[in-house]
């Protein structure tokens, strides 16, 4: 929790009337930090509070995420600020991508450090509570969430990746336990549950998605979750399973769709997030 103590001390040094005075936020004007930028949307009457940081998929952007009014309002209507950082193009002229640990070490930025800088800035200028942060992400953004949960578990209160997991070589262990809700489409062919290989003729390299089930097995070990059956339910086309763990929290939601977010995803992850402290 040393990182969060640092953020809180930093926030106390900023006058209260500066919290919402920045000329940034929304889809049109990004907030600039070291090595990158992010977009943010805050609820009406915001006086500080919890936040969701959402990592876009391959080729996406934080501006596109914040520009989706219905997506944003699902978070802000429940009192959450929505933070949407921008990934960098992984090479000149290439799409934006996160520096996921996939064995291909050519990414232009250390995104663990970048995301820490984004959070520190949001705490300082928008009064975001770092102890009530949920990190979410879709596809490659979801893979970055897995990496953050594994290698920087102190970053957020909880992690909710969707349609993305570890890449090979998969870590043998993580820095510590974490609270995770993973959401995946049973018919996902882009990031299959069992993983797949992707070959680049241009760069003569093959990268491999790890098996989602093996990733969950790693989290069961890290969180000390018994392998025996635990609570589960099927409703609205979604199968939910929760393990009873000694440390952290672990849950899985499988929907019948393909590579995408299921209907009601926002409510699902926020309900789960809020249940962690009950």
Automatic annotation (TrEMBL):
Signal peptide: 1-21
UniProt keyword list: Hydrolase, Signal
GO molecular function annotation: hydrolase activity
InterPro entries noted in UniProt: AB_hydrolase_fold, Plant_Biomass_Hydrol_Est
Protein name: Polyhydroxybutyrate depolymerase
Originating species: Sedimentitalea nanhaiensis
Lineage, opening ranks: Bacteria, Pseudomonadati, Pseudomonadota, Alphaproteobacteria, Rhodobacterales
């Amino acid at each position: 929790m040393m990182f969060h103590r640092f953020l809180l001390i930093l926030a106390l040094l900023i006058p209260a009337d500066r919290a919402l005075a920045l000329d940034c936020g929304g889809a049109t004007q990004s907030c600039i930090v070291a090595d990158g930028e992010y977009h943010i949307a805050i609820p009406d009457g915001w006086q500080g509070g919890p936040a969701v940081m959402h990592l876009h998929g391959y080729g996406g952007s934080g501006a596109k995420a914040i520009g989706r009014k219905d997506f944003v309002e699902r978070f802000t209507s429940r009192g959450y600020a929505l933070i949407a950082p921008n990934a960098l193009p992984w090479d000149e002229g290439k799409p934006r991508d996160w520096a996921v640990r996939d064995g291909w070490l050519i990414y232009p930025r250390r995104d663990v450090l970048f995301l820490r800088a984004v959070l520190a800035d949001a705490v300082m200028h928008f009064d975001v509570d770092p102890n009530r942060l949920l990190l979410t992400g879709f596809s490659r953004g979801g893979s970055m969430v897995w990496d953050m949960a594994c290698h920087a578990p102190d970053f957020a209160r909880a992690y909710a990746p969707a349609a993305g997991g570890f890449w090979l070589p998969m870590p043998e262990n993580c820095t510590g336990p974490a609270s995770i809700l993973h959401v995946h489409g049973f018919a996902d062919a882009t990031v299959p549950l069992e993983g797949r290989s992707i070959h680049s003729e241009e760069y003569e390299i093959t990268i491999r998605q790890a098996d989602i089930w093996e990733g969950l097995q790693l989290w069961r070990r890290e969180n000390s979750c018994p392998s025996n059956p635990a609570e589960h339910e099927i409703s609205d086309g979604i199968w939910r399973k929760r393990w009873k763990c000694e440390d952290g929290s672990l849950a899985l939601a499988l929907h019948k769709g393909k590579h995408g977010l299921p209907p009601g995803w926002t409510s699902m992850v926020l309900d789960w997030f809020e249940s962690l402290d009950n």
